[in-house]
Specification:
heterodimer, A: mainly alpha, B: mainly alpha, 12 helices
Chain lengths: 325, 300
């Protein structure tokens, strides 16, 4: 599929979902779709690092938390409108990503994971410790004001829903463009063989840093959406288990297929909600599911499907080739 | 921020003694956990992300053993052996399956176990804070050192942890088993060709690393409250210590752990909100100036 067709397909699909939901859906469906968009974007943004660059960040929630808190605080200050608060937040997130990323990419493999995790816990402890600003473990209290802008009133759930889906689709298309660009292929090369990439003259460290910042950028977009959705920000947004959940979503859906993390997010939310409803042993059940996937399939659902599809295609090709002889 | 209080403390011998002894036990607990992580990584080349949860298990095993027998020696043994055995089982049935897989898979197996262990602990022991209190063996008058007083248990913990470190170093440096371990760390296949069961060596090293975490937990039980999820902070701290000290360097981890312990204990007086920040700043500076850590060698 060419890039333009994909964009068109994405926009049409997004518009269709919005139209159908607004026409027939109830409040519950709106909620489900908004959460899916938010967590799907979180997982997709993380996959720029995990799937395409081969850097397993275990601290991605720092951007989620940073986005939510910085946006929430700016809105509570009452001095800025929603678009400018979002813009300032994204600039802050990029700076934070640039600074933290500079340190993190100096380390490889598991140490990269640990370091991202450590920086995330630093942010978490700031949020918990700085009670006068952040409300500590209670989260940002009193809700986040959502004054109307450009004729959009986000206090109205349907308008909020449309905005979240639109932002989601735009971001997904942007990420798609990034990973399909020459830059995206350079990232894959770094993932597969960083040494070779370096020999070919690729500035590997700079590319890694850019990927880190981009991933953080989209991660904080999902954080902003989250704070709009729940009208608040809570410390667990920046807690390590949020990062763990994002990785969990990626592995559930699959790393190699672009929309894998989105499917993973859907499966994860489905699992999460039902397990919470059925049993109090949430951790045990989720842990066992994760173990079964990691040790059993060793890849995500879409990865398995993708492999099966490709194997089928190559078998069909072999058969066609056999006929000709 | 309270620099006056810090200065006042630094000029009072009694305060210095109290804070140093408190810092030492924090540092020693971090060191034991960090040395377990380092040991396992040095030989098996995997990072055990569950090590903090092993520490937590050590605390709870020690609590239960103390409740049953009332003897702190037994609860130390229970923490060490119980977690050691659990570590061997974890290595054999789960971790060993992902040795050749990429980091993501190893991390996810560990993450799954962090979720499971936290939940199991909550189910078995409940979600509330549990306290062991000071064991009877240590219900002694404090030791007087240079105008200040040190609780006997603090002294015991510090000496005991150093003793364990020396024992582990001797085991790896002086014995035949240590030679095999060091050889396996360099070239597992070659060692295996020489007729040595390297799977057993791996399991034993993982077990030994787990014993260190379990011991740390049992040592922490009298001075810390137990709560599900408590293993995570010490995991992060032990990682910071490993990065500062140099990956794979036990000596570096030892010195860095004491440093972090002292920053924590003096920080509570002088800069209670910024202790974490100071720890991270030190780590960042070390990473910038010497990415391999203070005592780390360049990876082969």
């Amino acid at each position: 599929m060419t890039a333009r067709l994909e964009v068109l397909a994405g926009v049409v699909l997004g518009a269709l979902v919005v139209a159908l939901t607004l026409a027939f859906g109830d409040k519950a469906l709106l909620d489900v779709l908004m959460r899916l968009a938010i967590f799907g974007l979180l997982a997709l943004s993380l996959n720029i690092l995990v799937g395409y660059t081969g850097l397993v960040s275990f601290g991605h929630a720092m951007f989620f938390g940073l986005g939510a808190y910085s946006f929430g605080l700016l809105m509570q200050s009452g001095a800025v409108s929603i678009p400018s608060a979002a813009l300032i937040t994204l600039v802050v997130a990029c700076i934070w990503g640039g600074v933290v990323g500079t340190f993190c990419i100096r380390l490889d493999d598991i140490y990269f994971s640990f370091l991202t995790l450590a920086f995330q816990m630093l942010l978490y402890s700031i949020i918990i410790g700085w009670v006068s600003l952040t409300g500590g473990d209670q989260g940002l209290m009193g809700g986040i004001p959502r004054p109307p802008f450009l004729g959009i009133n986000l206090a109205e759930p349907r308008q909020l829903f449309v905005l979240i889906v639109v932002v989601f689709v735009v971001c997904v298309l942007a990420i798609r463009q990034i990973v399909q660009s020459p830059f995206g292929f350079a990232l894959r090369m770094i993932r597969d063989n960083a040494e070779r990439a370096r020999f070919l003259g690729l500035p590997v460290q700079r590319y890694k840093l850019i990927a880190f910042v981009l991933s953080g950028f989209f991660g904080s977009v999902s954080g902003i959406l989250m704070s709009l959705y729940v009208s608040g920000a809570y410390p667990n947004f920046a807690f390590w288990s949020m990062s763990g959940d994002a990785i969990f979503m990626i592995i559930l859906g699959g790393l190699t297929v672009f929309l894998g993390p989105l499917v993973g997010a859907a499966v994860f939310l489905l699992l999460n909600d039902n397990i919470t409803r059925l049993t109090e042993h949430h951790g045990i059940v989720m842990g066992v599911v994760l173990l079964a996937i990691v040790l059993g399939m060793r890849k995500g659902f879409l990865d398995v499907l993708d492999e099966w599809w490709q194997a089928r295609a190559s078998r069909a090709e072999a058969r066609a080739g056999g006929d000709r002889q | 921020m309270n620099p006056e209080a810090l200065l006042a403390c630094l000029t009072t011998p009694a305060c210095i003694v109290t804070q140093v002894s408190a810092g030492m036990i924090i540092g020693m607990l971090i060191f034991l956990v960090a040395s377990g992580v380092t040991l396992i990584f040095g030989v098996l080349k995997v990072v055990n992300f569950t090590h903090g949860s092993f520490y937590m298990l050590g605390v709870y095993f020690a609590l239960t053993a103390y409740g049953l027998t009332g003897s702190y020696a037994v609860s130390l043994l229970a923490g060490a052996i119980g977690v050691g055995l659990f570590g061997v089982v974890f290595e054999r049935f789960f971790m060993s399956k992902v040795y050749n897989a990429d980091v993501l898979m190893q991390l996810l197996v560990c993450y799954a176990f962090i979720l499971i262990l936290d939940d199991v602990v909550k189910t078995v022991w409940g979600g509330d804070f549990l306290k062991m209190g000071m064991p009877e063996e240590f219900a002694l008058p404090p030791i007087k050192v240079w105008d200040g007083f040190v609780p006997p248990f603090y002294a015991f913990l510090t000496v005991f942890a150093v003793l364990i470190a020396v024992l582990v170093a001797a085991l790896l440096g002086l014995t035949r088993f240590g030679k095999i371990v060091r050889a396996a760390a360099v070239n597992r296949q070659m060692v295996s060709v020489l007729g040595i069961n390297t799977s057993l060596v791996y399991a034993l090293i993982f077990g030994l690393g787990s014993v260190l975490a379990g011991l740390a937990g049992a040592l922490a039980a009298p001075v810390r409250s137990a709560v599900p999820g408590m293993g995570f902070d010490i995991l992060i701290e032990s990682f910071i210590v490993t990065v500062i000290g140099g990956m794979g360097s036990m000596g570096g981890a030892f010195i860095a752990a004491i440093g972090i312990g002292l920053i924590r204990s003096f920080g509570t007086i002088g800069f209670p909100l910024a202790t974490e920040g100071v720890m991270f700043a030190i780590m960042a500076i070390v990473l910038l100036i010497k990415p391999t850590g203070l005592f780390g060698r360049r990876a082969a």
